[in-house]
Structures are given as structure tokens and as C-alpha cells.
Amino acid sequence: MDEIRWGVVGPGRIAQSVMGDFAHVPGARPVAVASRSIDRARAFAEQHGLERAHGSYADIVADPDVDVLYLATPHPQHHAVALAAIAAGKALLVEKAFTATLAGAQEVVDAARTGGVFVMEAMWTRFQPAVVRLRELVAEGAIGEVRSVQADLGVDRAYDPSDRLFALELGGGALLDLGVYVVSFAQMLLGPPDTVTAVGSTYPTGADAEAALLLGWADGRSATLTTSLRYPTPGQARVFGTQGWVDVLPRFHHPATIVLHRTGAEPEEITLPPDGVGYSHELAEVTRCVQEGHRESAVMPLADTLAVQDVLEQAAHQLGVHHREDPHVLG
Known about the structure:
Blueprint: E1 4-9, H1 13-19, E2 28-34, H2 38-48, E3 52-54, H3 57-61, E4 68-71, H4 78-87, E5 91-95, H5 102-115, E6 119-122, H6 129-140, E7 146-154, H7 174-190, E8 195-202, E9 208-216, E10 222-228, E11 237-241, E12 244-248, E13 257-262, E14 268-271, H8 280-292, H9 302-318
Parallel strand pairs: 1-2, 1-4, 2-3, 4-5, 5-6, 7-10
Antiparallel strand pairs: 7-11, 8-9, 9-10, 11-12, 12-13, 13-14
Pfam families: GFO_IDH_MocA (PF01408), GFO_IDH_MocA_C3 (PF22725)
Domain Gfo/Idh/MocA-like oxidoreductase N-terminal: 4-121
Domain GFO/IDH/MocA-like oxidoreductase: 132-246
């Protein structure tokens, strides 16, 4: 297919940010939006020049003139909508965190693989030009063997139990909203860990407020990760190797600049800004993969998504946080 027609499921804050970046992606055309409020869907469609507005998620899943769905609802709603979309043969870009639970993620991945339908987690970090260059430097051996990763991502949000971020039933909490970035970054460089240790605190709603994670590997590699809705952090990452390290300057989950420190050499600053806001690169990856008939992205494969979801769930459970999928979102 020369042109890939996109539909948006959930016209919230993240979807608003993503829409402008479609202009940077040849072959991608957003055509429809769905909300459980038809008025909200119509307002979003009018704002962004979309052809159709649907008043239910089921309706956009059944829309024959949509090739790919961008799923941007709260985390617990991803599972049910994704399964319905896969059954309808729709390719998917699913916002992070992929689902609310590991079991839900596994079910979506199994359905996608069985049905031969393209599905990818919307981890935009992996597609930022500066992060692409970081991965190239690591693969070239620029800092030797990677032995440790540090990353932090925290914000200071006033507690509001009515806000999605603090509502457990809507997948609220630091881990699923911000922790997914630090965990995915470490997993990208070190693979799935052998051990997960987490400390943190929770809000009265039961959602996690903050978490510090120590990930361990049997060969001694490690990752120290911090995430929080309770206090701000720089949003920086460092990748340590046997022959140097790389600083990923704030905010690391969509950086413009990395600094390479080779042992015995002067630091090398590398600046590679993204196109648009930065979502364009993941949109381009999905568009290309669907055009070429791929079932998964080599940059953000489903195995990595499952590994990250596993770490997030282990950490949440250690804090006493237990998320659930929403089975009623299509009803």
C-alpha cells in the first residue's frame, strides 16, 4: 500500500501532541478518530481535519477505511481494544505502557503473532535520531562492553485523586506512565534482567507515587532506575561501558544531544534533533513496516515489550500495586 490510513483511538493529551507529526511522515494519512463521547470525537476531528468521527471504539475497529489504529486510551483499555483490532486485521501502534498487566500484554502479543497482524509499542525514545546514534556507537564498541545503565524520569504533580495519573483503575501511577521509559531504556541496552528489586511509595488511591529499581543480571551487569510523580528529576541517562560512557542529556526519553566519553579522549558532543516534536519517527516506522508487510518492528520488537512489562509488573507488585485490564471498554 502506498498510503497508510490511520485512525486515532482516544483523543486525549498524548494524541493531541502526536497529530502534528503526521505532516513529517510521507505515506501516512490520519483519517478517523474514536472516543466514547461523540462530541469529543467530532471536536478532535474538526481540529485536525479528519474525515470521520466515531462515538465508540468498536465503530473505528469496524471502519473498513482505516489500516492502522493509534491506541492512546488509558493503559487498562489497551488490551480489549487491541484484541478487537487484531481480530479485525487492523495494524496497531499501542501507547506505552503497552497494557496494564503482563498477562494482558502476552495475550495481545499472542493474538498478533497468530493473526499475522503488525503491532508495536509506541516507545518513541528508541526512534529518536540521538538514541539511534547511541545504539550505533554501542554496537561499534565505542565504549566497550556495556555494564551498567542509570536513568531517571520524575515530575512533581500535585496529588489529585480525580486525575487519571492517580487513579489505579485507570492505570495511574509513576511506573506505567514514566517508569516504562527508564525500564525500556535499560532493557534496550542490557536485555531482560534476571532480578528486579523495587522500593517506593503509594498514594491513598493505591497508585504508586515513586519507585527506585535495581535491575540485576547474573553476570554482574546492573541498572539503577528512578521514576516519580512526587518529585522532579533531571531526566538524564548514562550508559557505562568498559572503555567509556555516554551521557544522554535531558530529557533522555526524547533527547537531542548525547555526549560520548571514550577513555583517554576528549568528550564528543553529538546533536541530532528529531523531526517535528519527535513522534514522527515511530509513525514512520509503523507506516514503513505496514507498507512492506512486516509483522513486527526490529527496533521495538514485541519480545522487548513483554520483557519491559514483566519488569514493571514485578516492581509494582513489590510496592503492593496490582493493576487490572478493563474488559468493558468496547461495551
